[in-house]
Amino acid sequence: MEEKKVDVILDGYIHIDTLSNIKKGDILILYLISDRIIYFYQGEDVLSFLNKRNKIFLNNKLIGIYFPKKKLADDDYSNLSIFIFDNASNIPEKLIEKIKNTNAELVYLSLEKFKGNIREFKKFKEIESKIGAISLRYLGLSGVTLEYLSNCSNLRFIDLSYSKNVSNIGLKYLKELFNLEILYLDDSYITDLGIRHLVNLSKLKTLSISGTPITDESLSYIGNLPNIQRLNMARTRLSGEGLKHLKNLENLVEINLGGTFINNSSLYFLNNMYSIEILFLDANDITDEGLFYLKELTNLKELYLNETDVSGDGIIYLKNLKNLENLQLEGCNISDDDLKYLNLLENLKYLNLTLTDITDAGLKYLTELKNLQILNIEGTKITGKGLDYLQNYLPECVILSDI
């Protein structure tokens, strides 16, 4: 298998590129078995990870330790850059010492589901300059805890997802972390007032605030973040009019608006966001008419329209999207005749037609999609005979079905 360099793998989405410009300090977020880890790239050409006995290796070099409810060992971990200490009720002095004495310039510290006293975070003062990334998911303490991060000037990554007690007041302690690049606040109680505290974080590249009660007002603040590349605002209270504030974000490549209150008219504000490559519009009140506003987004590679009212008439508007590789139409109003419009998207690699009304009669229109790699037809009326017919024309395609 060809080794690939990894640019960034974001929580929930995987982006693997054969880029040659990865440099020291780039944040890599990877999934290793069931544990998410972060490694600050040190210049190696080949990335290969191994998790063995709660230790994390890169090119046979120990770079991290994972302690699931275990006592800290006395081993010499002088080159560690990853420290995972989840489900803890305190922050041991030994952990602080190991972080303080490591040769790594910056470290990743995970204290997910921390159950201790807020006073434990006072110990951060000894390692403020060492913390480059921290995960405090499911933090049960109040947002005042974040005051102890306010002097961690090298922080580039913070994950506060599912921390229900972290409120707007807590975010004010992050407003001067000017090196911050990635911030997760998913399923927290952050509102527009909290997002306002982030306006000066000019290096921020990824902001994930799905499942929060933010409204379109937040977009007026986010529009001032010039380096934003990825925005996850799924399951929020957006109506869409605030999208106009994002028009000058020239680096924006991914935006998730799934499960919000946007509609056809909201998509008008996307029509000149030419940098967008990945767009999630799932579970919204969107019909064919709305897709008209996407026809100029020629850099679009992935489009998610699951559980919308889109039909074949809307797909016609996508015919000029020559870079489109991934089209998700699960639960849409797609019938056999609508499939003929998919031939306009000759570069499609991934197509999801799950839970649509297609039958064997429409499969002839899919046989021309020679670049298809994965096709999902689960929950349709396709028969075994139709599946065999399609597989004969698309022998290299993996077809997912429940037949």
From TrEMBL:
Descriptive protein name: Disease resistance R13L4/SHOC-2-like LRR domain-containing protein
Annotated Disease resistance R13L4/SHOC-2-like LRR domain residues: 144-383
GO biological process annotation, one example: SCF-dependent proteasomal ubiquitin-dependent protein catabolic process
PANTHER family, A to Z: F-BOX_LRR-REPEAT PROTEIN 7, PARTNER OF PAIRED, ISOFORM B-RELATED
InterPro entries referenced in this protein's UniProt entry, alphabetically: Leu-rich_rpt_Cys-con_subtyp (IPR006553), LRR_dom_sf (IPR032675), LRR_R13L4/SHOC2-like (IPR055414)
Keyword Cell membrane appears in the UniProt entry: no
Signal peptide range: none
Any Pfam family matching the protein: LRR_14
Gene Ontology cellular-component annotations: SCF ubiquitin ligase complex
Keywords assigned: Repeat
SUPFAM superfamilies with a match to the protein in the record: RNI-like
